[in-house]
TrEMBL record, chains A, B:
It comes from the Archaea. This is Peptidase M29 aminopeptidase II. One of its GO terms (biological process) is proteolysis. It comes from Natrialba hulunbeirensis JCM 10989. Gene3D superfamilies: Thermophilic metalloprotease (M29). The keyword Membrane does not apply. One of its GO terms (molecular function) is metal ion binding.
Amino acid sequence: MDERIRKHADVLVDWSARVEAGDNVVLSVGPDAHELAVAVAEKLGERGANLLATYSSGEVTRAYLQAHDDEFDENPSHERALMEETDVYLSIRGGRNTSATADVPGKTRTAHRQARDEIREARYDTRWVSTVHPNRSLAQQANMAYEEYQEFAYDAILRDWESLADEMANMKELLDEGSEVRLVSEGTDLTMSIEGRTAVNSAASVAYDSHNLPSGEVFTAPAATEGEVTFDVPMTLRGDAVRNVQLEFEDGEVVDYDADQGADVIGDILDADEGARRLGELGIGMNRGIDRYTDNILFDEKMGDTVHLALGRAYDACLPEGETGNDSAVHVDMITDVSEESRLEIDGEVVQRDGRFRWNWDDE
Amino acid sequence: MDERIRKHADVLVDWSARVEAGDNVVLSVGPDAHELAVAVAEKLGERGANLLATYSSGEVTRAYLQAHDDEFDENPSHERALMEETDVYLSIRGGRNTSATADVPGKTRTAHRQARDEIREARYDTRWVSTVHPNRSLAQQANMAYEEYQEFAYDAILRDWESLADEMANMKELLDEGSEVRLVSEGTDLTMSIEGRTAVNSAASVAYDSHNLPSGEVFTAPAATEGEVTFDVPMTLRGDAVRNVQLEFEDGEVVDYDADQGADVIGDILDADEGARRLGELGIGMNRGIDRYTDNILFDEKMGDTVHLALGRAYDACLPEGETGNDSAVHVDMITDVSEESRLEIDGEVVQRDGRFRWNWDDE
């Protein structure tokens, strides 16, 4: 076995999910994530955890959903009972075709999703972590050769997370103490209030309220957004390419939008509900193991030299106890490159210039 | 998709498991059984059943067991809760190496198995059915070309089950009414009591208390076994080849054993627990779609011209209401060829001679 797969399993089990003896673990395995599943199983055996593996296949899901009449039973009790007794839910994604469910109608997906709200909540109550096994299908999505993609993915995943968490703590502290953020870049001059909000140091570990591996971002929930922003990182949203999306905010809401490509998709998203016109997230990418865009949000939004904003739902972790932030059925991240002629200010002080953080300026 | 895969799914879901709308189904998928899983998922969607797929991989199990210290938690509650809420458990086996767990120590397997007795009981309380997806690894185990093996397997699986069930009813009647069975063949002269026991007409459907697809055997739970038996059908047990196993019984228990090959494995099995030294099953193979040994117990024991016996656990279906039969953590089937110079007697009357049944003698 490729030694990197074992290291990936080590990070997932020990750093990310903090698995201990006696933990009831569900390991959700994609059809082409077998090798990582073997490495994770070995690690779970070492830790004395209790392993149940589930099979997560887009093709199986597609066949089931296509044949169903869309009248789904609410929260089937066998899956709910499983999830309620689960301490740790590890999802290792990796199919053979990232478009495996492309022809399942939206209303079928929505009906299936809505019928499973309690199962989903129970899963979010576990120490859940989602990761991907870098395989050929994901390499293809990223326009990379297989071995090239493996190097890319493991560079992002096999980091010194403890040291990255320490660095990200600087940014969290600045955001927690600050009241207003200003982002300036080409086509962007945006101010947001972060007064009273708590930033998440997303260090790829449940110990940091962080549930993705890789991670490497610090994010918070902004409000009262004013100004304009351009998202120049290319991406695919709902199956459509979008390029250079521009948004204009007044009183926290989008009042105008445009895009070089995919403006229709942006319009649809903004029309989803009231909350879809406001920001739910400001995130600062700090994982320098990620050195290029691959049109996979799990990686792209964590990349160093980028800042991302999400239209829609805010995460509870960023809000004062008991307070609910921006509410919406959508949460759509878009990314802007801040590597050149850019600055991020907190309460008038520059904390990031041309992608470099204040605490690193002396080294350069 | 090969039309035979869809037919296999039809037989499994409708004839074997009698799946209905609202059933909570667990589909246990082997790593190389994906195509059948897709066909079964489609069928389950049509029926309006609730699908949860689990991943059953010998390599994952091996990695977990090898790394574990053998102090397994008793009946982990997440898996037990799942099984207790499950109506139908469908196991579609098919890995890439039938020897995937060959180097897991016997004591580890036994400890793991013993720690899961309640989960196993809960699974046996469902409408469970076990089948295989004919793949290259199984073809190799059977010493067959892949396409040859597919034909072999589908001949066994895609039968007219209703008509086979009718023929098997004859044998069930003889066994139900009889008190003592005697099996005589080369190296075999064994008597067993079947007084008060109920035979199962194993017609590959839960409606017949039959849980394997293919099936095609009639079996009961013998007691008070006396004499000697030779299992001349070659097979692999726990990863090791065994050849010509000989057992000697007194007062229902094995008092001596030997084998041309694999005697150690037999010794390990007999030492598993007290019940492992007694018989749990006498079965008569009646599926003439199976025309050769393939070292796969699911097929071999159903073959016409064979009789098999199992050390260990007896099936409750064979016992009077409320009575428990031979109890054990193991159930290990071994097979003897009765096609030549053999006879099966019930209460002194020959019912099968050289593989042919009494009700067919007139035809020959």
